[in-house]
Amino acid sequence: MIHARGLTKQFGDLVAVDRLSLDVESGEVFGFLGPNGAGKTTTIRMLTGLIAPSAGRATVAGYDVTKEGYELRKRVGILTESPGLYDRLSAAKNLSFFAEMSEVEDVSGKVERYLRMLGLWDRRNDEAGAFSKGMRQKLAIARALLHEPQVLFLDEPTSGLDPEAAHLVREFIAGLKAEGRTIFLCTHNLNEADRLCDRIAVFNSSLVAVDRPAALRTQLYDRIVVFHLREVERHFERVVREHPGVSSVETMDAKLVVRMDEPERINPELIRALVEAGADLQFVGEVRHSLEDVYLHLIGDKGDSPEEKAGDADA
Q1: What is the distance between the alpha carbons of residues 143 and 92, in angstroms, rounded to a whole number?
Q2: Which residues contact 146 (CB under 8 A, 6 or more apart)?
Q3: Of 212, 236, 254, which residue sits at a domain end?
Q4: Are residues 119 and 255 in the same domain?
Q5: Do both 41 and 133 map to the same domain?
Q6: Element of type H or E holding 281
Q7: I want to staple 206 with a disulfide (CB 3.0 to 4.6 A). Which of 18, 78, 181, 276 is the partner?
């Protein structure tokens, strides 16, 4: 659905996007993560035909972003960081105007559908300028969807929203995902990306990594399991260390912190071995690495070590 090869954008001496190559499949929610100034918004503008690349090529929904901009824009929806609504027009008139500009059939029906879906129908006659930030954001999402685009580009859709509004927007995105829409999501909310995205790309003017969140965790971090005991005796560590599949074991207070290859297979065996050795086992938990850990590792801030996380962990 989205295919880019060597996509580059240069402003004078500044290379904002450097030889980006990626593929986003139909029906995929693709997270595009990176620090401020990384070139994420510039990438969206190139992929939607709003600005021309300095080099490289890309197609979206089968259309060349530099040569077929008119057809391309019929098939993509865009939510930018600044909604760009007409403050003196009502919510309904804002949507009607944009629907007519996009040659939408059944304008009134589409306007009603999306205002209802986003909880704005009762405020349809109120001026957009009187709306809260969350309501304006929802109205902008409705505008991006009026022409039923094949691909939806969302740039920080929950930025600055209160928790209730952010939750509604996330649930709406999840609903679009269930419909099979292709969504290109730029966000600083890493928990949001972890929950919604099939794959993520970490980007900082050039592509750093791209994969499923779970796969990136596996690539970057060992599996670490923490065995919580009433007390640790010296021979417990030896029992664990000698077990096949265990790469290391460390005692921390009343915990055994164990690196291993396949916890799902090895954990039951270790539990039996420890109990047979006289251990009073309280509970077992795995050190979980968040998408934030992955992101910070990839852009150069390694964060807390796994041992520090194990020491802080309750599980």
Answers
A1: 10
A2: 95, 98, 99, 102, 104, 110, 111, 114
A3: 212
A4: no
A5: yes
A6: strand 281-286
A7: 18
Contacts of 7 (CB under 8 A, 6+ apart): 17, 19, 20, 21, 43, 46, 47, 53, 55, 56, 57, 58
Q: Which two tokens stand for residue 269?
A: 């065996």
Same domain, yes or no, for 138 and 262?
no
Q: How far is CA 92 from CA 114, 131, 133, 148, 295, in A?
A: 10, 13, 17, 17, 40
Domain count, the chain: 2
The whole-number pLDDT of residue 43 equals: 94
Q: Is the dihedral of CA 248, 242, 236, 287 positive or negative?
A: positive
Task: Give the Cα-Cα-Cα angle 294, 210, 200 (nearest 5 degrees).
Answer: 70
Contacts of 114 (CB under 8 A, 6+ apart): 95, 142, 145, 146
| Residues near 284 by beta carbon (within 8 Å), at least 6 away in sequence | 225, 226, 227, 228, 267, 271
CA distances, 280 to each of 257, 259, 267 (Å): 16, 21, 15
pLDDT, tens digit (0-9, with 9 covering 90-100), for 226-258: 999 999 998 999 999 999 889 899 999 899 999
pLDDT tens digit sequence for 40-84:
999 999 999 999 999 999 999 999 999 998 889 888 999 887 778
Q: Give residue for tokens 């990594």.
A: 209
Q: What is the mean pLDDT of residues 174-195?
A: 88
Q: Which two tokens stand for residue 203?
A: 């980007």
Cβ proximity of 77 and 151 under 8 Å: yes
Domain that holds residue 223: 218-312
